[in-house]
Every structure is written in structure tokens, then in C-alpha cells.
Design brief:
The chain has 683 residues and is α/β, with parallel strands linked by helices. It has 22 helices and 21 strands. The longest helix has 31 residues. It is globular. Bound molecules: adenosine-5'-diphosphate and magnesium ion (MG).
Length: 683
């Protein structure tokens, strides 16, 4: 037997079973071993009968006091009842249906561990236990994902004999010097399926959690190393030119902006391709930092492509950045599917969307790529971004051994704590702007329940009468949209319904527009423009406004069904207002159905630091909501938790060691990494 042995060769597995196992993704011995239990039945720590509540699923340790069999009147069902007592002298009535054979097993005075569901017997006024399983020993049993015909009990039977031969089947892919105090793989596999104590189960879980994070880090770092085998054009840095630029700005750079700008510029001076992520809260001033990199490139006669995720943002950047760097002699073009006001052969800076990546677009001197709001582009897209540009641009420039590629700067406003960012974007170096420009106003944030909805509308009316504008954000485009699998998702508001209500009933006197992702980009652009030009007073929108839209005259951000959004996202919505000189407001509409959503939204009222909010969300909601997770392959961690920053750090350090040493020296690890990539569909 080895890892590749097919399940049909195992005892007790016929052709029908093979098919059923296939449904669980189990084809081989390897699949069986690495199919972790979903949970464990812990017969080693039974509960007191007195602590049990109706509907609990619980394990108790008790002695049998008496047993009787009851036949129902029509005799189609038999019930066995036993009175049980635990060592604290509490009693409960255990019940079995249609298991007459148990009569001979259940002997008075015998002690057992019983697993079952707690109910209530109204006549006897007594708790009952509908027993589903009983054990003599204080074992911890694995519970697997099941499918009709494949029970956990059956899977246990299949795995047990494999584990007793484990030494001949598998070697540890972790080198000893990395493994350190972690369990070895063989013991880990034994304990994860059949732990002899909770302590050994915890150790096995810890080892597997480490492995998950380690393999992800290893994958990122090998990608990074491969990239660094290439060369990028090293740039001359002229500090005078940069000073001249910053002097022309209407503000002083923050210390944080200075620091990250310097990190970026130092990278540009090297002939190793930069691969850097610039993280900074909404409004922290990333644009001007990136503009400094553009300037450096331009002064070296190298072009920059600046990619925005949407047409609207590309236009907006074009409007903002062009005049800014025109002052220092940098020419800017725009290249989107709708607008092609760029000379791709001559312009120093080309701001664009995906349209830039088309095969027939080429840049003779590309030296730098900037990706704005990079979470909108997946890992895969990001990894391949350089390729199409590279092939069209550098076809002739490719030297014999090394390929020349542009430097890359990614930017994101998603505030992700540093360790997590390293796990998510581990192929990138990280620069963080952790400081806001001075004098930013605090946006007054309030949770609003249904009762106060009308008052909120009145307030919005008075703001608009004063010449201001408002956003209304809804989670859905249309009501009845099935996104949760629930048939009636009545508690989530939709753009179309709110738009209708606001324009017909609430604010018939104002001009209102709507925006959502299903509209054509021309339509979206037209709506955004009229909001920007103040032709519209209210914009009802889905999350598409989340990223970067700048309307300084807007002072109200009203978010419907606010508890349906992650805190990082709410914080980004909030960042859409307060961009001008007027006091601004953020209203979170929610009836706070759960304690958790109350806690989360309360955090929005008091906290204005995106990094802190992201951390709170991570703790309260788990990692599921972290933006960018889906694209990173980190959304299906089975053992590791993204809030375990210590383990993330350790795994990354270990991966770093291996990559520096040369991963090719570790063939078992190379094989595991390949297998892992296929499994996670990362490429
Ligand atoms: P983001 O990081 O969200 O992309 P922007 O770069 O768009 O933020 O900057 C937001 C606003 O802050 C812009 O209007 C910009 O001109 C301004 N700004 C940037 N840096 C500073 C600074 N150091 N002091 C004052 N205002 C600044
Ligand atoms: Mg920005």
C-alpha cells in the first residue's frame, strides 16, 4: 500500500462504494489520510446531566439503573427506555427506537458513555436523552463529511488499518530544522483521525495549520524569487526633481508619505524588479506618492502604465493627476475602452483600464506599472499582468539569459494588518501609510433604526437644501435577487426599489440617480459625471462606489442594511464623504438583529482607523470577509486561522529560510507544493 493506492483495492470497498467515495473527493489512500475530520466526538470529557439543556447534543457518563421495553400500540415501533444516573446523582431517561437487540447489551449497574440529543418528557417531567451512540472507553472519534451510504463509522473503518501502516506509507515533507517542536507528519495523521487526548488533537491541528500557512507562504516566496531572476531598468534618482515637485503641491507630505515614497524610489533604483504593495487607508494620500514614482520613471525616459479597476476611476485619476505632473513636465494620456486620448508611443504616463492589456497595445519604454485598488485584480491577474505588456514591449529587448520586465507598484485602500497582508500578498514587499494628513474632519457616524428613518430623510433634505449631496448604498441591485440561497431575502434593500421610493415618495423635489454593476460602463460614467457636476442630489448605488470616487460636495453617506457589509467595506463607503470642507455624516441603517452586528456597527461609531476596524472584523466575523481573500487561495483554510498572526509569522519565516536555501534541495517539499497547488487551484 502507498499513497496512490486506489480505494477499490481496500477491503470492504466495492464498485458502488467507490462511486460514493468519489463524491467526497476520495479516490486514493492519500485522499483518505488528508480528508480531515469535520469535527470530533469527545467521549473523554462528558458533561454533567444537570448542565444539559433541551436540544443540546451531548455526551454523558452514567450508570444504568433500570431498563424496560415498551411496545407501541400498533406494534410497528419498539422503544427501549433506561433510567440513567451520573456520579453526581442526577438522573435522565435514555431512549432508543427500534433497537430491541440492545435489551441484552444494556445491563443494570453497567457504566457507559452516551451520546444523544436532550429532550423533555412532559408526562414524567423529566429530561430525556435520545441516544445515537454509546461507548465504553473515553475515546475521541472523528466525524467526517458524509454522503448517503458513506458514514463516519465506515470511514473510520477504512482509515484505521492505513494508519497502522503509516510508517511505510508516508515520509515527512517538512525538513527537521523547520519542523522544530511541531509533531512529525506520521503522528500528526494518527492523531488528527484518532487522537488519544485533546492535547494530542490540538498538537496535530497545530502542525496542520502550520503546514497550510507554510505552503502558501512558500508558494508566494517562490513566485517572488522567480520574479527576481528577471531584471528591471534601474533608474537614476534626482532628488532635486522630486523636491521641485513636492514644493509645487498645495500641502506638505506627511512623514508616512515620505517614508513610503523613499522605499519605493529606492526599489526603482535597483535592477531587480520592484514588486511592492502600497497600503494606506482611504484618503491617506497614496496618489501623490505614486505620482512621485511616475516622475522618477519619466525623468529616466521610461513610461508608466497606471491601471485602475474601473472606467470611472481611470477618468478621475486622469483629471487629477494630469495637471499635477504636467507642472513638472510629465505628459499623461488616458486609455480605456471608451476613451483613447493617449499616445502610447510617447506619453510618459498612460492611465487606463484592462483595455491597456490588449495585445495590440504596446509601449516602447515601459519601466513601471502601477495597479490601483489591487484587490480588484486577482492574484492570477496580478501575476500575469506583466506578461502581455512584457511580450509586446520587450520582445526585442530580451537579453540572452535574463528577461527585462517593468517595476510593479500595487496600491490598496483595504486596511489589512501587516502579518495578514504578508499572508495574502506574500509575493509582494509591503509599504504602509499609517498616518492621515492633518486636519481631516471626523465623519459623524450613527447607527439608525427603522423608527428614525424619517428623521434621517429630513436631515438629508436639509443638507441638500444647503447645496450638499448624498449617497445611499444598498447591498442588492434588485429585490428578490437570490444571493444567499434564501427564497425571501426581505431584510436587504435594493438599489432599484430604494431609487423608486426616494424619487417618487420621499424626495420628489430632488434629482436622483442610480448606479450598479450591471449597467454599461458608458451609463455608469454618465451618472457619475452628473453626480460629480451636482446635477444629481442623491446617488443610490451598490458597492460599486466603494473604490476611490471623489465628490467633495457630498456630505451624507447613508448605508442600508449596514450589517450586511464588512467593516472594512463600510469604512471605505464612509471615506466617500468628508472629502471637502463641509462637515459630513455616515448613517448606518440597521435594526441590529444580533448582538454581533450591534458590536460591529458600534465599532464604526467610535473608530475611524481602518486598520483597527479590519482587526475587529477579523475577530468578530472571522476571516471570511477580508477583501482579497477569495483571490488569494486563503479562503479555504481548513486548520489555520487568519487571526493567528503568530503562526502566520512563523510559517512565513520558515518558508523564507527554505527559499533562501533553495527549495530544490528538498524534493519531498517540492512534490508537496505541487500537489498543494493543484488542490487549491491556485494557478
Ligand atoms: P487615497 O490614498 O485614498 O488614494 P488620495 O491620494 O486620493 O487618497 O488623497 C486624498 C486627498 O488628500 C486628495 O485630495 C489629496 O490631494 C489630499 N492629500 C494627499 N496628501 C496630503 C497631505 N499630505 N496633506 C493634505 N492633503 C493631502
Ligand atoms: Mg486612491
Amino acid at each position: 500500500m502507498n499513497l496512490e493506492t486506489k480505494v477499490q483495492l481496500l477491503t470492504g470497498v466495492g464498485p458502488k462504494t467507490v462511486q460514493k467515495l468519489e463524491r467526497l473527493g476520495i479516490n486514493s489512500v492519500r485522499d483518505l489520510l488528508f480528508n480531515w475530520p469535520r469535527t470530533w466526538q469527545d467521549f473523554s470529557s462528558p458533561r454533567d446531566i444537570s448542565s444539559l439543556r433541551i436540544n443540546d447534543e451531548a455526551i454523558i457518563k452514567a450508570k444504568i439503573k433500570s431498563v424496560k421495553e415498551i411496545r407501541t400500540r400498533n406494534r410497528w415501533m419498539s422503544i427501549i427506555e433506561a433510567n440513567l444516573v451520573d456520579d453526581k446523582n442526577y438522573e435522565i431517561k435514555a431512549i432508543w427506537f427500534n433497537q430491541t437487540f440492545l435489551k441484552s447489551v444494556l445491563r443494570v449497574d453497567d457504566e457507559w458513555l452516551f451520546l444523544g440529543k436532550i429532550g423533555w418528557d412532559f408526562k414524567a417531567k423529566q429530561k430525556t436523552l435520545a441516544v445515537s451512540q454509546m461507548e465504553k472507553e473515553a475515546v475521541i472519534l472523528p466525524v467526517y463529511s458524509e454522503t448517503p451510504g458513506i458514514t463516519s463509522k465506515f470511514l473510520r473503518k477504512l482509515i484505521k488499518p492505513i494508519l497502522s501502516e503509516i510508517d511505510a506509507i508516508i515520509d515527512d515533507y517538512l525538513p527537521d530544522e523547520i519542523r522544530g517542536f511541531l509533531l512529525d507528519l506520521r503522528t500528526t495523521l494518527k492523531y488528527i483521525h484518532f487522537p488519544n487526548s485533546n492535547e494530542s488533537l490540538a498538537k496535530a491541528k497545530n502542525r496542520l495549520a502550520f503546514d497550510e500557512l507554510f505552503l502558501i507562504a512558500l508558494r508566494f516566496l517562490t513566485i517572488k524569487k522567480e520574479l527576481q531572476q528577471n531584471v528591471a531598468p534601474p533608474m537614476q534618482i534626482d532628488e532635486k526633481v522630486l523636491q521641485n515637485f513636492t514644493k509645487k503641491l498645495p500641502f506638505k507630505l506627511t512623514d508616512a508619505q515620505r517614508k513610503v515614497a523613499w522605499e519605493i524610489i529606492q526599489d526603482l533604483a535597483k535592477n531587480v524588479p520592484m514588486n511592492r504593495l502600497l497600503e494606506g487607508d482611504v484618503g491617506s494620500g497614496k496618489t501623490v506618492v505614486a505620482a512621485m514614482a511616475v516622475l522618477v520613471a519619466a525623468k529616466n525616459n521610461l513610461q508608466t502604465v497606471w491601471l485602475a479597476p474601473t472606467e470611472i476611476l481611470a477618468n478621475q485619476h486622469y483629471q487629477n493627476i494630469k495637471p499635477l505632473i504636467h507642472l513638472v513636465g510629465v505628459s499623461t494620456g488616458l486609455y480605456t475602452s471608451a476613451n483613447k486620448i493617449a499616445d502610447t508611443q510617447k506619453d510618459d504616463l498612460i492611465i487606463g483600464t484592462h483595455a491597456v492589456l490588449q495585445k495590440n497595445v504596446s509601449f516602447p519604454n515601459l519601466g513601471l506599472i502601477i495597479i490601483d485598488e489591487q484587490h480588484r485584480f486577482g492574484v492570477k491577474q496580478r501575476a500575469h499582468l506583466r506578461k502581455p505588456i512584457l511580450t509586446s514591449t520587450f520582445r526585442q529587448a530580451v537579453s540572452m539569459e535574463k528577461v527585462t520586465i517593468p517595476h510593479l507598484l500595487s496600491m490598496t485602500a483595504t486596511p489589512i494588518p501587516r502579518t495578514l497582508a504578508l499572508a495574502l500578498y506574500g509575493d509582494l514587499d509591503l509599504s504602509i501609510i499609517d498616518q492621515m494628513p492633518a486636519g481631516r474632519q471626523t465623519i459623524i457616524t450613527k447607527i439608525i433604526n427603522e423608527k428614525n428613518r424619517q428623521k434621517t430623510y429630513d436631515f438629508i433634505r436639509s443638507e441638500i437644501k444647503n447645496g450638499r449631496q448624498a449617497f445611499v448604498i444598498c447591498p442588492l441591485i434588485e429585490t428578490g435577487e437570490v444571493t444567499t440561497g434564501k427564497l425571501f431575502d426581505t431584510d436587504r434593500k435594493s438599489v432599484m426599489e430604494e431609487y423608486k421610493k426616494l424619487s417618487e415618495q420621499i424626495f420628489p423635489e430632488f434629482k436622483i440617480g442610480f448606479l450598479h454593476g450591471k449597467m454599461k460602463s458608458k451609463e455608469k460614467e454618465a451618472v457619475m459625471n452628473s453626480f460629480h457636476e451636482r446635477e444629481l442630489s442623491i446617488l443610490v448605488s451598490t458597492a460599486v462606489v466603494e473604490v476611490g470616487i471623489d465628490v467633495p460636495n457630498a456630505t451624507v453617506m447613508m448605508i442600508e442594511s449596514a450589517d450586511r457589509f464588512g467593516l472594512a467595506q463600510l469604512h471605505q463607503f464612509r471615506g466617500r464623504v468628508g472629502r471637502g470642507k463641509h462637515q459630513s455624516y455616515c448613517f448606518l441603517l440597521s435594526d441590529l438583529r444580533s448582538e454581533k452586528s450591534a458590536q460591529r456597527l458600534k465599532a464604526m461609531e467610535d473608530c475611524f482607523d481602518g486598520f483597527k476596524l479590519a482587526q475587529i472584523d477579523l475577530e468578530l466575523r472571522g476571516s471570511g470577509e477580508v477583501v482579497g481573500l477569495k483571490q488569494s487561495g486563503l479562503d479555504n483554510l481548513k486548520m489555520a486561522s487568519l487571526s493567528d498572526t503568530i503562526l502566520i509569522g512563523e510559517a512565513r519565516a520558515a518558508a523564507q529560510k527554505i527559499v533562501e536555501d533553495g527549495i530544490e534541495k528538498y524534493p519531498l517539499l517540492c512534490a508537496k507544493l505541487k500537489e498543494f497547488e493543484i488542490e487549491k487551484h491556485l494557478e
